[in-house]
Amino acid sequence: xxxxxxxxxxxxxxxxxxxxxxxxxxxxxxxKQPVPAPSPPYSAFTTRRxxxxxxxxxxxxxxxxxxxxxxxxxxxxxxxxxxxxETTINATVSVFMAVFAVSPLLWAVWADFGGRxxxxxxSLVFYIxxxxxxxxxxxxxxxxxxxxxxxxxxASSVMSVGAGTVADIxxxxxxxxxxxxxxxGPQLGPVLGPILSLIATNGNWRWIFGFLSIIxxxxxxxxxxxxxxxxxxxxxxxxxxxxxxxxxKPKYTQPKLVENFPKPPKPSLKxxxxxxxxxxxxxxxxxxxxxxxxxxGISVTFTRILKDDYGFSQLARSLSYICPGLSLISGSLIxxxxxxxxxxxxxxxxxxxxxxxxxxxxxxxxxxxxxAGILGYGxxxxxxIHVVAVFVFTFLAGFGMxxxxxxxxxxLTEVSSAQPATNVAIANFARNASAAISSVIIDRLVEQMGxxxxxxxxxxxxxxxxxxxxxxxxxxxxxxxxxxxx
Length: 486
Hints:
transmembrane helix; single chain; Major facilitator superfamily (MFS) profile domain-containing protein; 20 helices; mainly alpha; Growth Hormone, Chain: A
């Protein structure tokens, strides 16, 4: 008994030690391994706030195009009011388009460096004051030129800076769809402009500028009190802003709150040239320019053809712009979603080998649709085919064009995270410059070549776009890696 007891007592500490060791080992096994902290979201803004930001910059993006197009139908009225020649009054359109094309290059590079909201608040002051003065001062042709230049200068920033804002808050996987919503503002301007010009009937031309100043003022106040700074270099994903509720503290400039975000290049001529000569940006800009020049040729001739060849009244001609408007909207929304779908499919198939250029395959389809529309429009007008056919081919030309533009704009925000607004501004410059050239020469080309062959030539020019798309798909990754080896 005593031996047994002694044996047990002798083995007790050993057993106890073994049990303790086993428990320690079990605890180690059972203990949860450290879980790496989840990566922060691309944007800390709520879904509701992101939706509102996109709505607001879309609304702001409407200002420039509607200001340019609401003015065109009342040119004969303004010619009488300002007592000038047709050439002189048409020149006020040309200077607006020229300034609207060049100015975004200035605005965008500063928006990529100093802040999105600061640029909105600065540029829109020029726009609002110009419209107030146009609505109030006595009719003077010199003043009209100066104020149209100032109006275009103020409105021109929003297209490129707005694209940068979308890129700030929407990750690349959803950016095509978001860009398609943002593009609705610039696309609806040319459509609603001629319709809204009806408020100038009975000689009330000043109400056009009064209306634009009111709309601009509303947008300005919403930006002041509701739009947070989004530039990622300054605020990152927005978490450090610590926002609560729909309003933000009015602030003209935003101090830097975060580190470790890519520092954009400081505005300079050298950096401008660096962005322009970057092959993906240059080629996408050329492609967009060719396509927009062709579509603008349709837009410039559309209303005159409806009047002279098909006998449409002023009201009917204004309402006819609903057709190209629907084409731009539907092409944008469908193209944006398809672009995101292609990205998701490529990422799911081989995540390590995904490149932004894989969005581009749908551009060939968009170009083919637009080329068909350009050809069909030219020959339908040339052969005096029923007006329904003219509308169908006008729709196809706009549908394919905006399909291409959405993919291009989204791609340009992906190829350089440090300066997306600058890349988009360069493409916008190419588009608007091409539109200005097209509007000047299209009548002469039609006169010399005839409608059918003129638009056949424009269609063949756009075949270059297919070659550009293929070149970007196959060479884009190499060009990007050489520009940024990281």
